[in-house]
Amino acid sequence: MMAEPREMKENKLWHRPLIIFITVLIVVGIIALVTTAVVQNKALPKKYKYGIVLDAGSSHTAVYIYEWPAEKENNTGMVRQTHSCNVKGKGISSYAARVKEAGMSLKACMDEAKGKIPVRRHHETPVYLGATAGMRLLMKENETQSEQVLSSVADFLRGYPFMYEGARIITGQEEGAYGWITVNYLSKNFHQERSTMGALDLGGASTQITFVSQLRVESPENSLHFRLYGNDYQVYTHSFLCYGKDQALRLTLAQQLQTGDRHLSDPCFHPGYQQEKSVDRVFGSPCVSTSLSRPTYANFTLNGTGNAKLCQSNVKRIFNFSSCTWGRCSFNGVFQPPVEGKFGAFSAFFFVMNFLNLTSSSLDESKEKLEQYCSKPWDEVKQSYSAIPEKYLAEYCFSGTYILALLENGYSFTSDKWRDIKFLKKIGGSDAGWTLGYMLNLTNMIPAEAPDAPPLPHSGYVSIMVLFSLLLAALLLLLACKVFGRPTCAQNKYVI
Ligand SMILES: Nc1nc2c(ncn2[C@@H]2O[C@H](COP(=O)(O)OP(=O)(O)OP(=O)(O)O)[C@@H](O)[C@H]2O)c(=O)[nH]1
Ligand SMILES: [Ca+2]
User: Fold this and answer.
1) Which amino acid residue places its CA nearest to atom 15 of ligand 1?
2) How many structural domains does the chain have?
3) Per the UniProt record, which residue ranges are transmembrane (predicted)?
């Protein structure tokens, strides 16, 4: 009777170190597993790639830097803008008479880009320059000069340690298409079965409208077909050269100067606004039709009268609604299907509508507010917005009226469709514009088919691995209890 307890005690003495050893092993194992999972799951210092696009617009040039994680370049929405720089002065087309300086004008922004991108990435960072309507107009006026301007900027960009990938004038069709790609890429609309949004871009010298149309696009030059991430898109696009807001102002002024009076009473400017303007500046543009008669005097005086209604009827005269050889037209005989779906309106559409506080107003409300704004005396306007450069400030009444006329009468956004227009500047930190779409296309970052996704996301995979390891460990522990006897486990509360 006395021998049995001694044996049990001996057994227990032999068990204890083993159990402790196994428990420690299991605990260490679990800690190791969890640590591995956590470390693995934590954002590793990612490898980023970079790209630079110069938007050589008619009014100014902007330099954009984009960044994306190297291993995820084919996923939609991964590229983001990390920096932008506005080149001082006017657009590159304004250097026509002093082409050598065109390249140098980019120096400050390009030097800044050098500082923003890690040195070890410089040699593999592509640089693209795309010129838009200002250079398209210069090309029409003087081909040699436009080529010289492009080679001046090209030579200058080649002097940087980046990978120079070209400087060219992009077509209006490309400008529209890439703007559409940009807004939908940034909104992650190419994912799943989401519908896309149209893109409205208003520059200084041209304006673009691009959207998916269910209706057949009758004119081949306005029709684009894309296969992106496994989906097909039939896209309508048109770029109206000369219908950017600066050229539209010239067209409106040229129309009004047909009366022959060198004192122009202009309803698109505030009452009390007065300025001497050059006839050359107005009629020197290739946009101003040669059928209009050019006044003989060199300057004219513009006197604001501040009447948005009259302004609107003047502005409407620059659109030709009378001839259309297609089923339906926007203006100037250009085919356009009815606008469909939501739209993102950016660049000057945003600057102007945002300044006028009209980004969330209905069409009727916008007209009303604009009437009030235009009728404000110039002195009052200057006082209220002393921080805004006078050049911009003087033109908001005209620009707002032009935008309403272009959208309502030009593109046929009726009152109910007006709500579908969202005036925006950026989407998730990146500017809306053609540059991102241009770079995505040239670097082959928008695949036709959806990239193969692993069955589980990485974090899901790790979580499942950890869960099963824990389960396994618990089972092992249970097994140990069974092997080494109940009392020990019961004492340690391991057995249920
Ligand atoms: N109010 C205001 N106007 C601006 C600003 N930036 C540009 N603009 C004006 O808005 C118009 C359009 O500007 P952008 O979109 O930069 O035009 P752009 O790219 O130079 O011209 P395009 O080659 O026709 O595309 C021009 O008349 C500019 O002078 C701004 O910050 N505020
Ligand atoms: Ca532009």
Assistant:
1) 203
2) 3
3) 18-39, 461-484
- The CA 435 to ligand 2 mean position distance, Å, reads 9
The verdict on the CB of residue 431 being under 6 Å from ligand 1 is no
Assess whether 131 and 205 both reside in one domain: no
Which residue positions in the chain have pLDDT lower than 50?
A: 1-4, 490, 492-496
From 90, 250, 351, the mutation candidate for ligand 1 (largest count of ligand atoms within 8 A of CB) is 351
Tens of pLDDT along 184-213? 999 999 987 889 999 999 999 999 999 999
What 3-state DSSP class applies to 241?
Answer: strand
65 closest CA partner among 118, 101, 103, 134:
118
What pLDDT is stored for residue 221 in this prediction?
Answer: 98
Which of 397, 404, 392, 311 lies closest to 366 in space, CA to CA? 404
Helix/strand/coil for 127: strand
- Dist CA 26 CA 32 (whole Å): 10
Q: Which domain holds residue 102?
A: 48-169
321 lines ligand 1 (CB under 6 A): no
Q: Distance between CA atoms of 15 and 7, rounded to whole angstroms?
A: 12
Residues 6+ apart with CB under 8 A from 179: 199, 201, 208, 210, 346, 432, 433, 434, 437
How confident is the model over 386-441, as pLDDT tens digits? 999 999 999 999 999 999 999 999 999 999 999 999 999 999 999 999 999 999 99
pTM, two decimals, is 0.86
How far does the centroid of ligand 2 lie from the alpha carbon of residue 110, in Å? 19
Query: Which long-range CB contacts under 8 A does 364-372 form with residues at least 24 apart?
Result: 364/415, 366/400, 366/404, 367/308, 367/404, 370/308, 370/397, 370/400, 370/401, 370/404, 371/308, 371/309
Residue 244 in contact with ligand 1 by CB distance below 6 A: yes
Q: Final residue of a domain: which of 146, 169, 192?
A: 169
113 marked ligand binding residue: no
Tokens in use for 200? 């409205």
Say if residue 205 carries a ligand binding annotation. Answer: yes
Query: Would you say 204 is a known binding-site residue?
Result: yes
